[in-house]
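Supplementary notes for students who missed Thursday's class. We covered one full example, reproduced here. Read the sequence, then the structure, then the short commentary at the end.
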Amino acid sequence: MKLYSLSRTDGKKLKAQTISFPASDMPELTTSTPSRQNTERVVYAVSGVVLFIFMLIGFQQFYLHGRGFPDHPIFPPLKGLVITHGLAMTCWMVLFVLQTLLIVNNNFRMHMSLGIFGIALAVIIIIISPWTAIQATRLEPDAILYGLHRKQFLIVPLTDMLKFGPFVAIGVLNRRRPEIHRPMMMLATLSVIAAATGRIPALNNFYASTIWNQWVGPFFPMLVFGAAILVVKTMLTRRFDRWFTIGFAALAVFSGLIWQIAPTSAWERVANFITG
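Structure (token representation):
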């Protein structure tokens, strides 16, 4: 971009000078960016509330009756571990919704203060979730989940942390870069919601007989919702979010690979080793 300025050369005449610099160095001259940012914040806040509702519906047996899905008692040796895991995940979902609402209301100071608690909570989840899944598999090895034996299905909760952990880490490391921080924390939360949506029969029955069940299994509702977030956000902000797109694409590919690996004999040998 070019700007023209006038300067005196001999005290009488004015000489035009051309100053050039890249358009990327120009300040924003319109109000579209703040409006776009506010819209994006609202999209994340609404998405967080929807995910929270999915969690309440999916785990209603746990919250209302202290039972597992589908309506069976939790083994006494697992009860303490399952309750701790459930509370940790519930706190994460509540925190995510609260954090998005704080940003919508421009309360950045409180948002950053709660972020420290969020980091500690994420570490607890990454440690306790795999252990809970392994112990459940040891106690109930013959259970069938989504057409898979428990040891085959073990790959799902274990690899959930391989999705959740990196997204959280990238988000925390880029906490001062909202264009990266926001989508990464959204994807981290989205990556673990399949445990809830997989417990909603209405959702499962909708795609159970389709090719999507064969390719991505219980991850299908999660991926549909993630795609919806991307489409809605792009339409409302009129901006392509490359960070969300890259992260979501990685999430989709990884989820599909996991579901294809689950029924293989190679994974079953790994599961046998893990469960002892």
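Commentary. The first strand starts at residue 2 and ends at 8. The two ends are 67 Å apart (CA to CA). If anything here is unclear, bring it to office hours.
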